Amino acid sequence: RLEMSLRRRDVEQWMSHRRLPVELRRKVREAERYNWAATRGVNEEMLFENLPEDLQREIRRHLFKFVKKVRIFALMDDTILDAICERLRQKIYIKGSNVLSRGGLIEKMVFIVRGKMESKGENGIEVPLSEGDVCGEELLTWCLEHSSVNRDVKKIRIPGQRLLCNRQVRCLTNVEAFSLRAADLEEVTSLFSRFLRNPRVQGAIRYESPYWRSVAATRIQVAWRYRKKRLSRADTSQSACYLG
């Protein structure tokens, strides 16, 4: 309680010093309360640094059991999962926060541990996301597709290309999550590219992902509309021929 009280005092003094507006102060207080409830004020990354590496690995496997709920990662062996878990960072989002914005860069994958989000595509279709779901998973496929391998079997990043988001992901409640940054994901894909290019893994990415399901549904709708127009034009042409 004393630590929480001191932390709250420091935050209030900082907001006053920076002259934050009332609405921003309210959001900061809410984020601080939720962050404290989720972590009890403990910085896990600093705590891990002082522990033996094998113990760090065992603790991460325990903390990140949720990763295997995602079929993409359920197919992976412990070596790859350890590499991913080592790079996961805890994130706290408050209700109403935008995790991904339409037209913005996708710079992370986010794994939901607790709370609810909503993904809204360009077509207006809304996809609910909750515990065990992931957003930004298209980044994994993109990292694999926009790279090449040289003669030394070292992965080379193709410059000048960035992945833009075509949907908005918003928090419906306060959300506790873990994120994997694009730079870390690129490192993992460079280390394990052969495995990640496996058709089974690619199939899991494509067919189990809410994002890719939404993309597939949109493409099917577009193809169906195009086909209906062609059939309609063909019927009109035939009618004109008969009348002629």
UniProtKB/TrEMBL annotation:
Keywords: Calmodulin-binding, cGMP, cGMP-binding, Ion channel, Ion transport, Ligand-gated ion channel, Nucleotide-binding, Transport. It comes from the Eukaryota. Residues 72-140 form the Cyclic nucleotide-binding domain. InterPro entries: cNMP-bd_dom, cNMP-bd_dom_sf, RmlC-like_jellyroll. This is Cyclic nucleotide-binding domain-containing protein. It comes from Hibiscus sabdariffa (roselle).
